[in-house]
Amino acid sequence: MTNPPAGRHRSDIGRSLELMWRGPERSGRGPKPALTLEGIVGAAVHLADREGLAALSMRRVAAELGVGTMSLYRYVPGKGELLDLMVDHVSGPPAEVRAAREQREGRAGKDWRAVLQLIGETTYRLYRAHPWLLQVNQSRPLLGPNTLLGLDFALGALDGLGLGSRERISVIMTLDSFITGIARQHVLSRLAAEETGISDEDFWAAQVPLMESAMASGAYPHVFSLTEDAFSVAEEDMLRFGLTRILDGIETFLGNAAAERQASGPEAGAGVRARG
Amino acid sequence: MTNPPAGRHRSDIGRSLELMWRGPERSGRGPKPALTLEGIVGAAVHLADREGLAALSMRRVAAELGVGTMSLYRYVPGKGELLDLMVDHVSGPPAEVRAAREQREGRAGKDWRAVLQLIGETTYRLYRAHPWLLQVNQSRPLLGPNTLLGLDFALGALDGLGLGSRERISVIMTLDSFITGIARQHVLSRLAAEETGISDEDFWAAQVPLMESAMASGAYPHVFSLTEDAFSVAEEDMLRFGLTRILDGIETFLGNAAAERQASGPEAGAGVRARG
DNA sequence: CACCTTAGCGTACGGCGTACCCAGTAAAAG
DNA sequence: CTTTTACTGGGTACGCCGTACGCTAAGGTG
């Protein structure tokens, strides 16, 4: 009975949200804090960027800031919440995207393809810059100020296309899922190369002998009729390829939806509504 | 969310591959092994399925098998390699897909859409059945016998469509990236619900008060013009939506490629080559 | 038989997240 | 002013983790 059921360090949603949106509350009494939440989160992000998620421990973050380990717990309830904060910290749409956002005021429905492409590539670069994002098991997408801004921008790109709310969310989720998936593939592969010190070439070379005996077994005819260059597609080309496929698919969808609306009057179509 | 140890235990590629393809080598001498590799991997998978990746420790697996912790290290070099083996263990195309594979012998180029859809949905269900697959993230996709069989089947579906090797891989990677991405979203969300005991409704409810003040700020116009049902799309519908978009996009690509080939003779087209 | 390879595994080390508690500080109350 | 009180920094300790090391004993080989 001395211990509660070993309460694993889960993130307290309410607390994380409050910290993200309002920051810590101060009530005047007592000594002045030597640290700031921003500083802690920034140091943690810096550490994770430099040395990977495995190196991110409360002890290391504290050492980075020159304070005792337990001092961090005066600012953050636990490691889970710190990770939540780190995610939102780096998740804002970068300057590049903010600029594009302002430039396209009022051009609804015109350049959705370019904007979605920009969002996709930007998100991809985000994962590249902060590989640990893909290792953090984001419990759920916590909507912090930055995360929400990114979503808002993506939604803006879909304005004026006649899509309903559910359809807009579906389109964004499709794009985002693909980007996350392909970034995961590339980033984890790169991480593995760094951590093990084994390059991609060495890695594939290590598989060759066993692959050859597998080929001899005849169980994998299609794999072994591939040409040698099959796996050498550059990562950016792969991203571009998939992105184009998905945008094409969305375009087809837009065409179908428009045709359907045309056929049955302007206010039909499930969930389609111009404004709330 | 926890970050699973993720760290110091790099997996030895050569050793993992050898264990996957050849199994452990025995040299007759000494006492007979009380365990089998299969048994260990199976127990580990079972444990991870039941209690999550966070509960998967060498001590727990050993306890499950009724042996001492260090005995496992006679069979497996370390936890990293055990994870590699677990991944391949569950990654085989299930009976359902194997059946479809045999049924379509010789019908190349006809039902690629149905087959890719089946593969997508099957992969999605795989992640659903073994959520920890999406949390394991420390190595490159090791090609074990089962993994390779899945790839071979996917390649078979693209036979007879006039695609080159690099294009086939690109198509498969696009599909796989999307499936992995969306499964990640759904599975991690579900995991979080189980582990924190907070349902999806409670989760969104917790965000409402802060969202309302965010709305008042006027910084997120597009988000707050969404209708209330925007986020209530069922997971399967979301999967189906994205899958259809991607298959449409691939279909467009096939059409373009065919047209291009038609226009400039049978052996043109960047990267298209029948055999090496 | 003795020899020697190999299996099982007890112990120990250095790391982790964090609960608990105390000492010291600074603002508020008297 | 002094006293009170809320608060901060952080030392210590607990129970986990992966795994290196080295011992005992089993059982084919000579």
What is the strand and helix layout of this fold?
Two copies of one chain form a homodimer.
Chain A: H1 13-21, H2 37-51, H3 58-65, H4 79-90, H5 95-103, H6 112-129, H7 145-157, H8 165-196, H9 200-217, H10 235-264
Helix pairs in contact in A: 1-4, 2-3, 2-4, 6-8, 6-10, 8-10
Chain B binds a DNA duplex (30 and 30 nucleotides) through residues 5, 7-9, 27-35, 57-59, 62, 67-71, 73-74, 78-79.
DNA-binding region (chains A, B): 57-76
Organism (chains A, B): Streptomyces boetiae
Domain HTH tetR-type (chains A, B): 34-94
Structure write-up:
The structure is a homodimer of 276-residue chains. The first copy, chain A, has 276 residues and is mainly alpha-helical. The first copy, chain A, contains 10 helices and no strands. Chain A has helices at residues 13-21, 37-51, 58-65, 79-90, 95-103, 112-129, 145-157, 165-196, 200-217, 235-264. In chain A, helix 6 runs antiparallel to helix 10. Chain A is flat. The termini of chain A are far apart. At the A-B interface, helix 1, helix 4, helix 7, helix 8 and helix 9 of A face helix 1, helix 7, helix 8, helix 9 and helix 10 of B. Chain B binds a DNA duplex (30 and 30 nucleotides) through residues 5, 7-9, 27-35, 57-59, 62, 67-71, 73-74, 78-79. Chains A, B: Residues 57-76 bind DNA. Chains A, B: Pfam families: TetR_C_1, TetR_N. Chains A, B: Residues 34-94 form the HTH tetR-type domain. Chains A, B: Keywords: DNA-binding, Transcription, Transcription regulation. Chains A, B: This is TetR/AcrR family transcriptional regulator.
